[in-house]
Amino acid sequence: ISIHCNSCDKPNTLNGTSVYYDHQHSLGLAKLVQNELIAALGTADKGVRNANFAVIRRTTGPGILVETAFINHESDRERLVHPNFRERAARAIARGLAQFVTGESAEGAGGA
Known about the structure:
Shape: globular
Strand order of the largest sheet: 1-4-2-3
Number of domains: 1
Structural class: alpha/beta
Strand content: 15-25%
Largest sheet: 4 strands, mixed
Number of helices: 4
CATH topology: Aminopeptidase
Order of helices and strands: EEHEHEHH
Radius of gyration: 13 Å
Number of strands: 4
CATH architecture: 3-Layer(aba) Sandwich
């Protein structure tokens, strides 16, 4: 699990949380983590997306890249600077991972 802050070319135009996966066997993990993040953070749901990022492309097991919020969007950045936001994000990611490992399935996650 690779954890990041997103950014875009035009500041204050995009905000929210998204999770990326490359291989189909990572889709369930991505959905579980995204569901937990949105529930915990209250950020805009930018969804789960397939992407060819090197950090997740070269994994042999399930791998995801998490974009917690946009660092160049004022309201997202205000959230990111608070330790409580980062703690909630970390715990949400851990819950999603635990659900994946134990075989629990959040509605719409497609199983683990």
